[in-house]
Design goal:
Radius of gyration: 20 Å
Distance between the termini: 17 Å
Helix content: 25-40%
Largest sheet: 4 strands, mixed
Shape: globular
Number of strands: 4
Structural class: alpha+beta
């Protein structure tokens, strides 16, 4: 099934630049209204260790906010304003951040949105449609689709 999906993708997107449409001027992003929800991450500092040296002597270095794109509805896009802590290790003096559970691989989108993108791609088989609907860059859409497709292939492969 996945091989059929990849073959259809190659057929639909390989000739005449169909990934972007007939020409790049046809690409249009929708203007979406923003809806922002604030979230603060709480870390249990009793089990906190430096990921570089393993030391338990870590201190809060700073706070940082990041906007994560969460869901896209008809004309509205939902963002999560996530406030998280940055730490510094007293022994190796390296900085690190607390883990944001729902963040997709160091991007500014959530895992939920990544799965929505993959599911929409599996229906249309055009990256252009996914890119325009979710207002994301082509390379990000391609990365999400190939990564999730490879993970799905590994799960279904029998050795």
């Amino acid at each position: 099934m996945i091989n059929n999906m990849l073959n259809k993708f190659i057929e639909n997107n390989s000739l005449e630049g169909n990934i972007f449409g007939k020409n790049n001027s046809e690409r249009k992003s929708k203007e979406l209204k923003k809806e922002i929800k604030n979230i603060k991450i709480k870390t249990d500092r009793s089990n906190l260790k430096c990921p570089f040296c393993g030391s338990k002597h870590v201190h809060i270095h700073s706070y940082k906010n990041i906007l994560l794109k969460n869901h896209v509805f008809d004309d509205k896009i939902q963002y999560l304003d996530v406030k998280f802590k940055r730490f510094i290790c007293s022994e190796c003096h390296k900085n690190f951040s607390e883990n944001i559970e729902n963040r997709y691989k160091k991007t500014k989108i959530t895992n939920d949105l990544a799965f929505d993108i993959f599911n929409d791609f599996s229906k249309t088989l055009l990256i252009k449609d996914v890119e325009i609907k979710y207002n994301i860059h082509f390379n990000l859409a391609k990365d999400i689709i190939t990564t999730l497709c490879n993970e799905k292939m590994k799960k279904t492969a029998k050795f």
